[in-house]
Design brief:
Blueprint: E1 2-7, H1 13-24, E2 28-30, H2 31-35, E3 36-37, E4 41-42, H3 45-58, E5 62-65, H4 73-79, E6 82-86, H5 90-104, H6 122-129, H7 135-148, E7 152-155, H8 158-169
Parallel strand pairs: 1-5, 1-6, 2-5, 6-7
Antiparallel strand pairs: 3-4
């Protein structure tokens, strides 16, 4: 089983990945852990790509959450048995990110790079509401749907997300 989870910031990619990984007993890779170094510094591209490539090479089953088009994106999409695109509306994503911030303020989330304290600033709010939904990101999602639509589930709201969770809780893995 190989599951790639993509979607807008704050939509719940990491939470879903952790849930599926635990239920199905498969390794999980959070791309935020790969991309970010302590203090919100970006890891070098070659190192990041190498980490993702190594994970893919070493695991026959996996769950990977995150977009990051430069981190073996095409390979992840091609190898995935299922691609889950969390396409929640911008206000839902902002609300989820706010709840996450309140819960994890002053801490580093399990799915985040070491030393990256949870934060909520105007730049991130702008990203959630506008920039992260701009042309490049929309085109990337449309390309995935066009190329891998038959194995892609588009989740638009909490009810659909709950159904996905139920499907994996019954998975015979």
């Amino acid at each position: 089983m190989k599951v790639a989870i993509i979607g807008y910031s704050g939509c719940g990619k990491s939470t879903l990945a952790k849930y599926i990984g635990k239920k199905c007993k498969v390794p999980v890779l959070h791309l935020d852990q790969v991309h970010w170094l302590p203090g919100w510094q970006e890891r070098g591209q070659a190192d990041s790509e190498g980490m993702v490539e190594k994970f893919l090479d070493e695991n026959s089953s996996w769950v990977i959450d995150g977009n990051y088009s430069a981190l073996e994106h095409e390979r992840r999409m091609k190898e995935a048995d299922t691609i889950i695109f969390l396409k929640l509306n911008r206000l839902s994503c902002l609300f989820r990110a706010w709840k996450r911030y309140c819960k994890n303020r002053g801490q580093v989330r399990e799915s985040m790079g070491a030393g990256c304290m949870e934060k909520m600033d105007l730049e991130f709010v702008w990203w959630i509401l506008y920039e992260g939904r701009a042309g490049k990101q929309k085109r990337q999602y449309q390309e995935v749907l066009g190329k891998y639509g038959k194995k892609t589930a588009v989740i638009r709201n909490q009810r659909e997300l709950d159904l996905v969770g139920k499907c994996f809780s019954r998975a015979p893995f």
